[in-house]
Every structure is written in C-alpha cells, then in structure tokens.
Write a structure and sequence with these properties.
The chain has 702 residues and is an alpha/beta fold. Helix content is 50%, strand content 13%. It has 24 helices and 17 strands. Strands 6, 7, 9, 10, 11, 13, 14 and 15 form an eight-stranded mixed beta sheet that branches. Strand 16 (543-546) and strand 17 form a beta hairpin. Helix 6 packs antiparallel against helix 7 (173-188), helix 15 (457-489) runs antiparallel to helix 16 (495-522) and helix 21 (627-642) packs across helix 22 (654-666). It is rod-shaped and about 170 Å long. It starts with 7 loop residues before the first strand and ends with a helix.
C-alpha cells in the first residue's frame, strides 16, 4: 500500500446499525478514523480533502431524501474519485419493493460500494465496511497511478521540449519563456500564468555622463510582463510594470530569493524551506479580473535566477485546476475545481524557472555579443562612409531593402520561391551581409573611390594650364613676328594692323576656350555621345605650331580617359573599384562567425555576380550564386538608381528604376522571380519613404 498516496480513510456514519471496534487488524497499514455526523451538516462542505478517502454509511431512505444534495457534493472537486457509499437498510423505515427500485435507479450515478438489505448481522456489516475500504482504496489508488503515469509522461515531454528549445540553433529568449510558461501551466493545470522579467535586462548600460553614481545605484528595480497565458477569463496585471516597493509578492521573492505560494485554506500549504507560505497575504492585489465571475483561490510564484544569483524575473501561476476539463466561469467552479499547488508542482516549477534563468543568461550573452557586433558593424559603416561620403546611408538602405525582400519571400505562396522560408537567424544574416557588403571599399585607394569625373582635378588643371601656356605662346609668337616686321621695315605700328592682330589673338583665345568647354562637358560621367566623341577626336588631332615646335593639346592618357563611354572610371580604375568585393570577402572570412552566420562572407562575395556570368569578381552563373546574393544584387542596384545623395547623378524616379531592373532581368542578368516579388511586395517603398522624409527635412532646413 506504500505506492499509494492514500493512508487515511474516514468512515462517516450517517446511520449506525452496530458499534464497530477499531482497529481493523488486517488493514492496519491504513489509518482508519470512525466518526458519526448529521447528514444535514456533512454535505454542506463543498470539497473533500483530496488526500483522504471517505466512506459514507447511510440508509436508502436518507439517500433518497437527500439525493440532490449528495449528488452535488459527490460531483464537486475530487469527491467522486475519493468517496464511496454503503447503503444499509433500517428496519424502522420498512423498506418496500418500490423504494428499492427507486434507489437502484438513482445510485447508478454515485459510487455505491455496498447495499445491505435487512436482516443484517454485525459480522455482515463489519465485512461490508472492510471490503468497501479495500475497494475504494484500490480504485482510488489505481486512478491516482494512472493519472500519475500520465503526469510523468507530460513532465517528460515538457523537459524534452524545453531541453530541445535550449539547444535549438534558432534559440530566442522570448520564445523560450513562452514555452516555459506553457509547459508549467500544462503540468500544474494552472488557469492563468504570467512571466515578468527585469525591465532593463537587455537595455544599454546607463551613460555615466547622463547619470551620476547615486542615480545609477538608486535606479528603481522594476519587472515588466513578458508572457501571459489565460485559460478561462480576461485576467491582467493592473500595472504592466511591477515595482517591489509596491508589490508584496515581488518584494518577498527578491528579499528572500525564494518562491511563494498561497491557498485559501491556509492550513494545507506545502512545508518546504525554499518556499514561503503566504498565510496572511491577500490573493494577488496586482492582478485584475471581473470579481463577479472570478477569484483567486490559489497561486504560486518563483523567481528566475541567473547562474550568477541575480533575480532577473519571476513566474506566477494562478488557480490550479483539478482537471484540464474544468473551465472556471463562475465562483462555484473555482470553489469546486481549484486546489492548492502541490509540493511536486512547486518542485517542478522551481526546476523550470532555473532553466528559464539559464536561458536568460544565455540570451544576455547573445545580446551582449550582438551589441558588440552591432557596434562593430556601425563602426565599419562609418569607416566605409568616411572613405566614400557620396554613398552615405547606402549600406543601411540596402539592408532595409534586402530584409524586406526576405520577408516578402517568406510570405510568398506561389512560384519558384514559395517553399523558401528564411528563419529569424537567416534574416539577421542577410541584414549583416547587407550592412557589410561594401566594407572592402576601405581597400580601394581613396582618390579612385571618390572619383566623380573622368579626369582627376589635378589632371584637369594640367590641361587648363597647358591650354593657357599654348595660348600665351601663340599670342607672344604673333606679337614677336609683328614687332620684328616693324623693326625690319623701320615703321611705326598702324592702328588697323594692331586691330587685326588683336582679333587674331582673340580668335585663338576663343578657340582654346571652346576646346576647354568641350573637355569640361566630356569630363562629366554621363554617357559619351558621338558628337562629343568627334569633338574630342578633333581636339586630340589638333597640333599647335609655335616657331619650330609642335605641341599636342592632349596626351594619349588624357585622350583615353576622356574617351570613356560611360561613367568616370577607366578600365584599370574600374577593376580597382570592383576589387572591393574581394577585399570585403578577404576581410569577412577572418571573422570567426557562428554556424548561423557563417554564410555572410559568401553572400557578400556574390552580390555583384550576374546570372549570365557577366558579373564580378568570379563570373559565377545561375545556381552558383547564393539566393541571398541574388536578392542583394537587385536591392543594391535599386538603391544606387533612386538614391538622393549622389552628387554626380540625379535620382531616378521609382518606375524608371524598375524599368531598368526589368531590362536587366530580360538580359538574363538578374533573377526574374525575385524581381517579381520585389515589385509586387512594393519593397522599394521601404526606402522611398525614407528618401522623401530626408528631402522634406533638407527643404525645411534650407
């Protein structure tokens, strides 16, 4: 009998035909208590102590007369599992066949262990009680063991799920805390549950410049709601933030670093050193509910400790239901179907909160590492933009667009990418890759990186100086010839001849000015037209003869640069700019990425590749390019087209930018399915709104 939790049986005589002496020698392992009670008082008690078995002895007439009262009592709480009835006919009632028939139809709904009809002997009565004790004990123990087995299985699954969640590569503290609360409520059959964590657990540390030491030390400790599960009614915290100075339960857990429990029946609280029984506490004044239909009859709470010992939060469970089937919609339901949280419940809850503490510590470490990496990423972007100010904000915008495209893919139900879904970690990986995709520009020489026009300023100045020098030489040569002629003829200057030479000098200046204006126009990074190409060819072919010397207006290098058909970069310079991708990759592979983020270097390495192999630096084709890189190829080009902050180009309208991207798709360079998702999900509007706000801000400042 030691395997059963029941060691006490109460025999309640509502009718007593014979005196029975104790003990029952052959069932001495059970504590048997005999008592006589009045039937009118006994069934007023709404619930039987679930750890005590009861056998009621009464007459059929008593049962018949109190049928509704008995059935109501029997069906409340755990009474049905722990109660039994022995019907003993009383000779004084003169039982009839009709009464016996009525009784047999009624007692089918209750646990009738015996039905003695007169005449009844003392021994017969004694053995009926003894057999009923055995029967009730065995049946109740069997039901207990059956529920115990189910509970162990439930606990085992909960432990497995929690352990699996803790080792999952997509571990997130919020999801884990939700799981802990869910499993805690399943096992304890709680009606409501809350998890609260320290308000600033993941916040940035206080800025010493903004807060002095006294302010930091005296900063109030507050806890905020993180998870909530309700089974019956709308129950919520009166204040979303709980302050230990105003919450007794919070204060108790922090000061004592232990769990608390409360039950309406203060005498039946578990005796456990680590758990404080709040015998004089009001039932959670922090919780609000409709008092007309709901009340708190039991609750327990445990602090969530970090391995360091700090309390970072706590879990509260409210109203332990007797069965999962019990729905608490009114006070009588709570009276009948709510019991105390057992010692076993509290032990399990303590175990779960310990694991929640480990998860928070884990999450804090991840959060700290993430903050460090976010700071590193932000510093990297600042370094990139300091080298290339013209693209300020580009990395963040590409990250916004690429993450937006990833989320749009996750919501896609049809097409090639309908089965592709990026996890939270993979979306983070895409964001970091986007933020760092241009980091290799640090390895590109700054004057090339910031080259706005075809000629560097010093090269343009050199041409301008050459033109002025040649212009001056021609002017001097004209004047020298004129003066030499005058001296040879010994004549004085004539006005008409002076005017003629002046006009000749002016024509030379005008010609050089036109040449230089052409060079200024061609120097722009716009597409070089045939007209301007012919003009440059004309200038390149022009020779300036001064005396016996012949001078070219442009060097071969200058002609080559000014003949660039599109953009401002020569072939060599373009190759150097393109090398930033390789620089990015070589830099990123030096970082010891976690398994979840290990693809960042490869994504960055492929964002300038094209499906037809015309991209760089490896000329990859189609399936050899990571899908994340294909996504970034679209977003990188789109932002470059619509960007407001490029001094050497005007922003292209949204529809025109899409048309350009569509042309790239038709030429087999960009992924058409990804572009379709980009357009249909209006991903581009994520940064167009930012650009519009920026333009408005600049206008207002101006």
């Amino acid at each position: 009998m030691t395997i059963s939790p029941f060691n006490k049986i109460e025999i309640v005589f509502l009718y007593k035909p014979y005196d029975i002496q104790l003990p029952f020698s052959d069932i001495s392992d059970l504590k048997i208590h005999l008592t006589e009670k009045d039937i009118n008082d006994e069934f007023l008690n709404p619930i039987t102590n679930p750890e005590i078995l009861k056998i009621y002895i009464l007459t059929p007439q008593q049962y018949f007369n109190n049928n509704e009262k008995i059935k109501r009592h029997y069906n409340s709480g755990t009474n049905a599992k722990h109660s039994g009835f022995i019907l003993v006919e009383n000779p004084r009632d003169l039982p009839t066949i009709l009464l016996r028939k009525k009784i047999s139809n009624i007692y089918k709904n209750i646990n009738v262990l015996g039905n003695l009809r007169i005449p009844i002997s003392r021994n017969q009565f004694f053995y009926e009680i003894r057999n009923s004790i055995y029967s009730l004990f065995l049946n109740s123990s069997y039901e207990y063991l059956e529920s115990f087995s189910f509970l162990r299985e439930l606990e085992s699954r909960a432990m497995k799920d929690i352990s699996k969640a803790m080792t999952n590569k997509s571990f997130y503290a919020k999801d884990f805390l939700d799981l802990v609360l869910k499993k805690s409520m399943e096992i304890t059959i709680a009606d409501a549950g809350f998890i609260l964590i320290k308000e600033d657990i993941f916040a940035e540390p206080p800025n010493p410049k903004e807060m002095n030491k006294i302010q930091i030390l005296n900063k109030p400790l507050k806890f905020i709601q993180k998870s909530k599960i309700l089974n019956s009614q709308k129950i919520f915290l009166k204040r979303n933030t709980l302050d230990p100075n105003h919450s007794k339960i919070t204060k108790s857990m922090i000061e004592n670093k232990s769990g608390v429990s409360w039950f309406e029946d203060n005498n039946n609280l578990p005796n456990k050193e680590k758990i404080i029984a709040l015998k004089k506490s009001s039932p959670l004044p922090e919780i609000d509910f409709d008092s007309k239909t709901y009340k708190i009859k039991s609750y327990c709470a445990f602090p969530i400790h970090l391995p360091s010992g700090e309390i970072e939060g706590f879990i509260i469970l409210i109203n332990k239901r007797i069965s999962e089937d019990n729905i608490l919609t009114k006070h009588s339901d709570i009276d009948n179907y709510v019991s105390k949280f057992s010692s076993h419940d509290l032990n399990l809850l303590e175990s779960f909160t310990n694991q929640a503490g480990i998860s928070l510590e884990h999450s804090k470490l991840i959060n700290d590492l993430k903050k460090a990496f976010e700071s590193f990423t932000a510093a990297s972007i600042i370094a990139i933009e300091s080298r290339d100010p013209t693209t300020k904000g580009h990395s963040e915008r590409v990250a916004t667009l690429t993450v937006g495209l990833a989320e749009a893919i996750n919501n896609t139900k049809n097409g090639v990418y309908s089965s592709l879904e990026f996890s939270k970690i993979q979306v983070e990986e895409i964001r970091y890759a986007s933020l760092l995709h241009d980091f290799g520009k640090i390895g590109v020489r700054e004057h090339i990186l910031n080259k706005e026009k075809k000629l560097f300023p010093y090269q343009l100045e050199k041409i301008q100086s050459r033109f002025l020098m040649l212009q001056d030489k021609l002017h001097i040569n004209i004047l020298e010839k004129y003066i030499s002629n005058l001296m040879a003829k010994k004549e004085i200057p004539k006005q008409e001849e002076l005017e003629k030479h002046k006009e000749e000098i002016l024509n030379i200046s005008t010609k050089f000015t036109k040449y230089f204006d052409v060079i200024l126009d061609v120097n722009e990074p716009a597409l070089l037209s045939q007209e301007f190409f012919d003009k440059i060819s004309e200038i390149a072919a022009t020779k300036i003869i001064v005396g016996d010397n012949s001078y070219s207006l442009l060097s071969e290098k200058e002609i080559e640069i000014l003949s660039i058909k599109k953009g401002s970069l020569s072939q060599a310079e373009r190759l150097e700019i393109e090398s930033h991708v390789t620089h990015s990759y070589n830099f990123l592979i030096q970082i010891p990425w976690s398994n979840e983020l290990r693809d960042i270097p490869e994504i960055v390495y492929g964002h300038h590749e094209r499906l037809d192999g015309s991209g760089y630096p490896r000329n990859l084709k189609g399936k050899n390019i990571p899908v994340q890189a294909k996504m970034m190829a679209i977003t990188d080009i789109f932002d470059a087209l619509v960007a407001q902050d490029r001094p050497y180009k005007k922003a292209i309208p949204y529809e025109r930018a899409l048309n350009i991207l569509e042309a790239e798709v038709k030429h087999g360079k960009l992924d058409g399915d990804l572009f379709k998702i980009f357009v249909e999900a209006r991903v581009g509007h994520l940064i167009l709104n930012q650009n519009a706000e920026k333009e408005t801000k600049n206008s207002s400042v101006a």
